[in-house]
Prior knowledge:
The structure holds 2 protein chains of 2 kinds.
Chain A: H1 4-9, E1 13-17, H2 21-33, E2 37-41, H3 44-53, E3 57-63, H4 72-82, E4 87-92, E5 102-105, H5 110-121
Parallel strand pairs in A: 1-2, 1-3, 3-4, 4-5
Helix pairs in contact in A: 3-4
Chain B: H1 3-7, E1 17-21, H2 25-37, E2 41-45, H3 48-57, E3 64-68, H4 69-82, E4 87-91, H5 94-107, H6 117-132
Parallel strand pairs in B: 1-2, 1-3, 3-4
Helix pairs in contact in B: 2-5, 2-6, 3-4, 5-6
Amino acid sequence: MVPAEVVALRQPVVLIVEDEVLIRLSVSDFLRNEGFTVIEAGSAREALTVLQARSDVSVVVTDIHMSGALEGLDLIREIRRSFPAVKIVTASAYQIGEPVEATLTKPYSLDRLLFVIKSLLGI
Amino acid sequence: MNSTALRSEVSDRGQETVLVLERDVLTRVLLADYLRSCGYRVLEARSAAEALTILRESSKPIRVVLSDAENGFKLSGWVKANRPETKVILAANAERASQAAADLCDVGPHGKRPYDPQLLVQRIRSQLRNGAE
C-alpha cells in the first residue's frame, strides 16, 4: 500500500489523445514542463488501451475528429461507461453535445488548456 | 550496441533528444517514461510517417531514434541520407528495446539507469496483459 502522502506528491497523469503528431507533441511537451505526467495516444483506440492498462489517469484531453475506426465521441462514451472518475476535456473545432467537464475550441492556447486542467484537478 | 559504443554517439549533453518509434502504445509509453526518468527529452511516434514528420520539423537535433524493427527499416534509409548525425537503434522486441534504453541511460544526462531493464520488460509485459484484457 502506497502511503497517502506519497500519492499526494505524485504528478497528476493527463492522457492526450490527438492524431496530429506535432500538435500532440507540443501539447505534451508543454504539460510535462508544467509538472504533469503526460501519456500520449494517437487514436481513440490507443487511448482506451492505455485506460484499460492504467488506473492513474486523472484527465483525458481528446480531439473529436480523428482517423481510425473509433472517433473522439466514441471514446467519450466509453470513458463515461467504463472509467467514470476520469475527467474529460475536448479539444475540437466543432461543438459537441456529449456531457464533458470542459470544452476547448481549436485553435486554443496552451495557457488556457493548463488553466482548465488545473481547475478540474483543484490545483 | 553496448553503452561504450553509444557513448561516442550521445555526447552532446544538454541537447539530448531521443525519438521513440514504437507501434504498441503501452510499450512506447513505458520506454519513453524510462528514458525521461533518466533525463532525456523524449519524442514519441507511432509510425514511420509520424517519426519522419518529427525528424523534419524538430527545432532541436534528435540524437537517437529508438525504433521497433519494422518501422525502423522504413525510416533508417531516410535518416542516413538526411540526418546523418542521428543514430538509429533498431530493437526487435521488448527485451532489446529495454536494453537499448538502459544503455542510453548509462551514457545520458544523468549517467544512470532509473531501474533495471529487466524490470522494464516485466512492466511492459504486465501492461500488455492488462491492455489486452
